[in-house]
Design a protein that fits this description.
Blueprint lengths: L2 H12 L4 H15 L6 H20 L4 H7 L16 E3 L6 H5 L7 E8 L5 H11 L8 E5 L4 E5 L6 E3 L18 E6 L2 E7 L5 H18 L57 E7 L1 H10 L4 H14 L8 E9 L13 E9 L6 H15 L2 H17 L5 H19 L2 E8 L10 E8 L7 E8 L2 E8 L5 H12 L4 E5 L6
Parallel strand pairs: 5-6, 9-11, 11-13
Antiparallel strand pairs: 1-4, 2-7, 2-12, 3-4, 6-7, 8-14, 8-15, 9-10, 13-14
Helix pairs in contact: 1-3, 3-6, 6-7, 8-9, 9-10, 9-13
Length: about 500
Amino acid sequence: MKKKELGLQAEKIKSGHSKEDREKIDAFFEQVNDSYDLPPVLGDVLFHHFTNAFEWYQKRGKSVEEIITLLDPKQLGDHFREDSRRVFNLDNAAIVYPLGMKHGQMPMFRLSATLKEEVVPEILQIAADFTIKRFPTFSTIVKNGFFWHYLETTRNLPVIEEEDDAPCKPISIVLRSNRSFRILVYEKRIAIEFFHVLTDGSGGMIFLKTLLGEYFRLLGKDVPVKEGVLDIEETPKEEEFVNEFEKAEGEDDLGTFIEKKSLQLDGPLSPVIPSHILHIEMDPEELKRVSRSYGGSITAYVLADMHRAAQQCISKKEGVFQIQVPVNMRKYHKSKTLRNFSMYFSTSLDTNDHPSKEELVKRMKDQILERGDAVPMNKMMKTTGKIIHALRFVPLFLKVPVMQAVYSYLGNSIIGCTLSNLGVVKLPDELKEDVDHFDFLISPGRPNRTTATLITYGNKARLSIIMAGKEKKFEEELLKQLDEDGISYRLEGSFDYGS
């Protein structure tokens, strides 16, 4: 927006006010101007964020004094004023993501909160401007070093976008103007899509909760700093930036990466990924009760249902189908890192093996306990660190083609699909009535036809099936499993993005 237009907007805000209030408004916008040192184009955009929010408050009868207090530009901190550069090395999990990318393929995931009321974009934008300073590793762009990629801080604005495309689309990290995440708004939903290089689901949820806390503070709520809502005025802590994979204990074991080749679901891949999404909303208490009736956890029960559904969608009768399960390593190592700190294991079932539901749930429970235990997970962490250490002096231009081939091979061979259970989301009591539900999505990587995610908030457990193929048989077979156990559910689905 041009300076002249900004000036006209500021003058419009002052019209109809007393002389005293006009002077306060002038002083406020002078303070806004003094709160950043950005290139003219970016500076104009940030100034426009304030004028938009100011006008929104005015239309709702807020006094000048109340508006100035809520929009105090001191809450920007020095984030948009300092020209100091900070560099962060990638954590051990993040290192592979930019190395393994091919055109159109990017490991993305999405966290969203659907509110009870329509989102106010003008206020969410200011909330993002105020919040980003608390997350310096998120306020970064991916850059090429001689040996590795790395993150470099940026003062580019976290601009709110209206959602109008398929979820989890790749982000162009070539442009210096692009962060590695985006914030999207659609009616009552606030969604944040992350390039996995920045963080995992746990770190991303802290960011979403903190953004929600600031958004509702700007709407007049007194939101406490707890349940994952961080104090945005607090100086970021070094412990939040740590590469926790270095805490790996025990011996390394290359065998932790060697698994049987997994079969894939039948059907052609869609040219657009995801091709469509199905949300299955259930009562978490009912889901827990049924899972326990089979002697397993909710995760074990859902894995059993997915394996049984997959058997109906695979024409090849020789081989195993493997479902990858991420493990939050924070449960084994005390950590406050906001970066990646997850490993994974796979559950497996032979296509010619048809155990009873009770037996299959028990197998899934046993595989979770055995393969997701601290010992094998630490071995995998240790081995990852050893591989990275061995490659540390190989130039990046030589690493990229090798890692793309390895990444493609691993994806093609050992993963049939993924189930990631982010668990129960907790919010401060002051926000509980404002949020209806959360959703969690992970973009499938080729050639996988699907991924599944589970997230629970209040009385809603949301199992999301994200498809990359044109067939819908897997979803239908999965619903049959729930029907057989008498589990009530409500369905929400997207249109076919590839059509």
